[in-house]
Amino acid sequence: MVRRSRAREVVLQILYQDDLNPDGQGQTAESFLVSRLHADEELTAFARSLLSGVRRNRGELDELLSKTAENWSLERMAVTDRNVLRLGAFEILYTETPDRVAINEAVELAKRFGTDQSAQFVNGILDRFLQNRASE
Length: 136
Prior knowledge:
Blueprint: H1 2-20, H2 27-36, H3 41-56, H4 58-68, H5 79-94, H6 99-113, H7 118-134
């Protein structure tokens, strides 16, 4: 659904900003969401739930992604890739979004906002994340 993809893009932009400026969270994120999503209440609510969920569970997500991304520390990853992974992992763990849809959406975000290798990298990590989750 294109509309939800747009919401994910906006959330990724805010997560990117959070990562680079951890003390700057707050009202600017809310106004950014509303303006970028053209005050669409349903879409804004979806984006809010993703944003608050990733922020709230960031420690757990980072720990799980670090275990999954063998030979890669989160600190070494590109900021965009790291946040796409957080968003994808959150959707897999905590939302009703089908796992494959969450991965595909993350890969599309990586293609749009990351480097030439980002989509492959994100796909590989989230696919392994999903396999690890299934084997637990």
